[in-house]
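INFO batch 0412 | record 1 of 1 | parsing
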Amino acid sequence: MVDTATKKLTKTEFWALSDAAEIAYELIDGIAVPKMSPRYFHARSARKILNILAEWAKDRGRAEMEWAFDLSEDSTPVPDLIYVSFDRLPASWHENAACPVPPELAIEIISPGQTFGQMTQKASNYLVGGVLQVWVVDPVAQSITVFYPVRVASPLENRAPVTYMGDGVITDDFFPELAVALDRIF
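INFO prediction complete | emitting tokens
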């Protein structure tokens, strides 16, 4: 058995562990980290968001739940939800593997035992790795915070994170025609 708490793993070792394990892992900085077991608010939020994304993404790309993607040589995170367009990953791609490209959108839902700060760090890592937008969903606070990448070459284009609550509707020019009303999720 591999010491998953401290031993840095290669991708091959990680996938061997992940395939044999009874619990789900994600690879973070070379360490196999167990995924949180979702509870009702988490599962309900994930299902509702996935339904909205899947309908919108039908002819645009893939909206999937718990699909790992290769972020870097030593990180294969497993966001709660992702969207990857057919521009990034052609519709003809059909393998039983981690997503080979960073998705345009990664969504993390805060579970009991996790903090907003931990999810903010994950969002930052995803954005540095090429994800174009990250949503952090807080089912208890009934909010979604949208994180955007830092543009070093164009600092005037940088956008601060935006938190949506109440009757807020998430829209963005990057995802044309997608409108996510929070009252449909919480």
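INFO post-check: The mean pLDDT is 90.
INFO record closed
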